[in-house]
Amino acid sequence: MFQKKGAFSPLYPQKNCKLMTNSSWSLNDLTINPDRNPAIPHRFTREKMLVLGWLIFNQKDRTFYNMARDCSLNIHQCEITVQQLIELDIIRFR
């Protein structure tokens, strides 16, 4: 499967991403960033709201498959949205 330009994949992290190709991580390693600067405005898309809410209410045994199913998104949309939330510093690694 080919990656679209700007697409996120846990196997092929993008530039400026905290993910490393040779490190192992899971969605369970992500947490909401309480230190994010609220003065920086951001408009949330439907996908970002769904994924952020899902991450808040599902604290363990997280998988992209379950996220996609529960949020009515496809796995690729979930991966991209998680990457965007990391880049916006809304979520971070524990």
Question: Which structural traits does this protein have?
Answer:
94 residues; mainly alpha; 3 helices; 2 strands; disordered N terminus
Can you offer a commentary on this structure?
With about 90 residues, the protein is mainly α. A two-stranded antiparallel sheet has the order 1-2. It is globular, with a radius of gyration of 13 Å. The protein starts with about 30 loop residues before the first strand and ends with a strand. The N terminus is likely disordered.
Estimated share of beta-strand residues: 5-15%
- Uncertain segments are 1-22
Taking the sheet with the most strands, its summary is: 2 strands, antiparallel
> In percent, how helical is the residue content?
25-40%
Number of helices: 3
From the alpha carbons, calculate the radius of gyration and give it in angstroms.
13 Å
User: What's the assembly state of these chains?
Assistant: single chain
Distance between the termini: 30 Å
Spell out the helices and strands N to C. EHHHE
Give the averaged pLDDT, no decimals: 81
Adjacency order of strands in the biggest sheet: 1-2
Structural class: mainly alpha
The gross shape turns out to be globular
According to DSSP, the number of beta strands is 2
List the helices and strands and how they pair.
Layout: E1 30-32, H1 46-57, H2 64-71, H3 75-87, E2 91-93
Antiparallel strand pairs: 1-2
Helix pairs in contact: 1-3, 2-3
